[in-house]
TrEMBL record:
Protein name (Swiss-Prot/TrEMBL): 3'-5' exonuclease
UniProt xrefs under InterPro entries: BRCT_dom, BRCT_dom_sf, RNaseH-like_sf, RNaseH_sf
Any GO MF annotation of the entry: nucleic acid binding
Species name: Listeria booriae
Keyword Nuclease: yes
Residue intervals of the BRCT domain: 187-268
Record key words, sorted: Exonuclease, Hydrolase, Nuclease
Amino acid sequence: MDNMILIDIETQSFNLESGIYEVACLVVENYNIVDSLYLGISIENYTGVKKYGYGFHNISKTKSEINKFRNLLTNYDYPLVAHNCPFDKKFLDFYEWLDVERDFYCSMRAIRLKEKSMRSYSLGSLISHYNLGAEADHEAFQDVSKLYQLLDIIRPDTWYKVGQQIQKQYSSKKTPRTREELENQYTVSYTLAGEIICFTGKSRFIRSDMQEIAIINGAKISNNIQSSTTMLVVGEDAGSKLDKAQEKEIIIISDDEFMEMVGDNIIS
């Protein structure tokens, strides 16, 4: 893909209601940066660490910032690329930052298709692997700049639009381990704290692996759609669980979107 708009947004949690605090974009043509945009309004007299949007005002509904973003997209009719694109896209859609249809592509997915032997494809792991720094900064402009450097090095060959399916390889099931069992082997986080996630459908990913990834990121697992279920992760041939989730207006994402969204801790 020759022309693209790289984007990184900073939010303070996985929850859509938490808001957007920073947005950074790089317009790339043939792997040359031709334009850029940074949106962020610092909190006066803030003395803490500026990461994950902390130290900035919530700009989710700030018309001046939304218009600047829309003007950039008007000037460059290129697809948007983010490293955790389903996550970024959901926030931009939720707060109506996009006034026209625009294709989204996930760089994590594209890099995974080019470099198949890496254990983790999180931005921080890639930055460290390619000696671009110790980890992700979790500051919008710094992170989108590192993403540009990574893409310039790797030059992915294959790009899939968000929501576009890759051919599946079906796998057998096993019972997932508990968080207590997993925390002795993997780094745990609270990225999905408060989420109760159900999985359904056939997938190229092992079901128990996805469940364990959810568990080490703070979620609880539901085997059926219940009143407490907050998210359904779907593969192919999803049946009655999908119908029930739609009836209850539960968040529904694909298995690929789920794996792209929580790429830091990959079970092996």
